[in-house]
């Protein structure tokens, strides 16, 4: 069930970057059993890491605190609709509910554009200037996958 206090905390995380300039104006919190278990804000600039988005930082924080890679039964509150990378991380973390404030259009209006990534994923953009994906040496790399498939002690996540 939605709780505005959690969105206020996500917004507070985003607001911090207005003073620190660690990254863009994005914040997020992960909630489990009505308690914040992870929080984060965009830290792309301070960490020189394009993956340090608010949602990723909040997921990392929650996983560390809960000592798990599986955030089933958690909810994410974020100040903005998640980008494609963050959406993927949310799904990989098994978070099933996300509440967001600003829209992707709102983010685009202040200079953060994700549309070219969505177009690439949807196959609407094959421009190599976005990404040139080249299959290579599968005969070499498949051997590791085959060995993993045979392992008795593997963990699928």
Description:
There is one protein chain. With 157 residues, this protein is an alpha+beta fold. The protein has a single domain (4-131), classed as 3-Layer(aba) Sandwich (Cytidine Deaminase, domain 2), CATH 3.40.140. It is 44% helix and 17% strand. The protein is built from seven helices and four strands; from the N terminus they run H-E-E-H-H-E-H-E-H-H-H. It has helices at residues 4-20, 44-47, 54-66, 84-92, 104-109, 115-121, 138-150, and strands at residues 27-32, 35-41, 74-80, 97-102. A four-stranded mixed beta sheet has the order 2-1-3-4. The radius of gyration is 18 Å and the shape is globular. The two termini are 27 Å apart. The model has no long low-confidence stretch (mean pLDDT 94). Belongs to the cytidine and deoxycytidylate deaminase family. It comes from Megamonas hypermegale. Residues 1-123 form the CMP/dCMP-type deaminase domain. This is Guanine deaminase. Keywords: Hydrolase, Metal-binding, Zinc.
Provide keyphrases for this structure.
single chain; 157 residues; alpha+beta; Cytidine Deaminase, domain 2; 4-stranded mixed sheet; 4 strands; Guanine deaminase; Cytidine_deaminase-like
């Amino acid at each position: 069930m939605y709780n505005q206090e959690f969105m206020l905390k996500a917004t507070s995380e985003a607001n911090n970057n207005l003073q620190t300039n660690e990254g863009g104006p994005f914040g997020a919190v992960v909630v489990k059993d009505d308690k914040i278990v992870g929080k984060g804000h965009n830290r792309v600039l301070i960490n020189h890491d394009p993956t340090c988005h608010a949602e990723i930082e909040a997921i990392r924080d929650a996983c560390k605190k809960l000592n798990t890679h599986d955030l089933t039964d958690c909810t994410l509150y974020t100040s903005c609709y998640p980008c494609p990378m963050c959406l993927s991380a949310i799904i990989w973390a098994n978070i099933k509910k996300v509440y967001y404030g600003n829209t992707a259009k709102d983010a685009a209006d202040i200079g953060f554009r994700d549309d070219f990534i969505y177009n690439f994923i949807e196959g609407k953009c094959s421009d190599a200037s976005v990404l040139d994906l080249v299959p290579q040496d599968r005969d070499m790399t498949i051997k590791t996958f085959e060995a993993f498939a045979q392992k008795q002690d593997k963990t699928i996540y």
